[in-house]
Specification:
Layout lengths: L2 H12 L4 H25 L6 H15 L2 H5 L14 H4 L2 H6 L10 H16 L5 H9 L11 H28 L6
Length: about 180
C-alpha cells in the first residue's frame, strides 16, 4: 500500500457513520433514485417521451409524499431547495470540523421529502386533464393506472370532446362539398 493510501485509510477510520446515518443514506438513495430514473428515461430517450412525463411525475409525488407534506398549510413560507442559501455556503469550514460528530437523523427523511414535495408542487402546480392526453393515447399508459379515478373519467371525457371538435368541421365540409356519384 502506498503512503497516500495509508493516509486516506487513517483519515477514513476517523469518520464513523452511525447506523442511523446509514439507514438515512439508504432511505435517501431510494427516494432520489426515482428522480434519477425519471431523468435517465426522459433525457436519454431517442423517441417522444411526453406521454411518460405525467406518470413519472405522479410516481415521484407518491415517493416524496409524507403526512408532513400533506398536512402543511399553503400559507407557510415556501422553501426552494434549488435556491442558494448564503448562510450555508459560509459553513463549509465549520462542516469539516464536525464530520466526526453524529447527526440527529430523526425526522430528516421526512424533512427532505417535504422540501422535494413542495418544489414539485411549485414547478408543476397541477397535473390536469390536458397533460394526461398524451398518456391516454400511449398504449403503455392508456389505462391511466397512476391517476385517480375521477381524473381518468375527466381525461377520457376531454379526449372525446377533442375528437368530436375535430370531427365536426370535417362532417360539415362533406355536407357542403358532397362527392358526385358516377
Amino acid at each position: 500500500m502506498d503512503l497516500d493510501s495509508k493516509k486516506d485509510a487513517k483519515r477514513l477510520k476517523q469518520i464513523m457513520i452511525t447506523d442511523d446515518e446509514w439507514d438515512l443514506i439508504a432511505d435517501l438513495t431510494e427516494v432520489l433514485s426515482t428522480f434519477a430514473d425519471a431523468t435517465e428515461d426522459l433525457g436519454g430517450s431517442k423517441y417522444v417521451t411526453n406521454s411518460m412525463r405525467t406518470p413519472m411525475l405522479m410516481e415521484i409525488i407518491k415517493t416524496v409524499t409524507t403526512d408532513l407534506a400533506n398536512n402543511q398549510d399553503s400559507d407557510e413560507e415556501e422553501d426552494d431547495a434549488f435556491e442558494n442559501n448564503d448562510a450555508e455556503e459560509g459553513q463549509d469550514s465549520t462542516q469539516n470540523s464536525k464530520i466526526n460528530e453524529p447527526i440527529n437523523t430523526f425526522g430528516l427523511l421526512d424533512e427532505v421529502k417535504s422540501k422535494l414535495y413542495k418544489n414539485i408542487k411549485k414547478y408543476y402546480p397541477t397535473l390536469f386533464t390536458e397533460s394526461l392526453i398524451p398518456s391516454i393515447l400511449d398504449p403503455r399508459f392508456k389505462k391511466l393506472d397512476f391517476s385517480p379515478e375521477a381524473q381518468k373519467i375527466e381525461t377520457k371525457r376531454h379526449l372525446q370532446e377533442l375528437f368530436n371538435n375535430e370531427k365536426r368541421p370535417k362532417e360539415i365540409e362533406k355536407e357542403w362539398h358532397p362527392l358526385s356519384k358516377p
